[in-house]
Amino acid sequence: MRVFGIIVLIGLLGIAILEYKCSSVIESYYMTYDEVLEAEAIGRGWIPEFLPKSAKNIVEKHNIENNWGVVEFSFSNDDKQLILSVVNKVHLSKIEVLKKRMPSVTELDISGKIDFYMVQNDFEKGYLAVNWVQLRAIYWFIP
Question: What is the pTM of this model?
Answer without folding.
Answer: 0.73
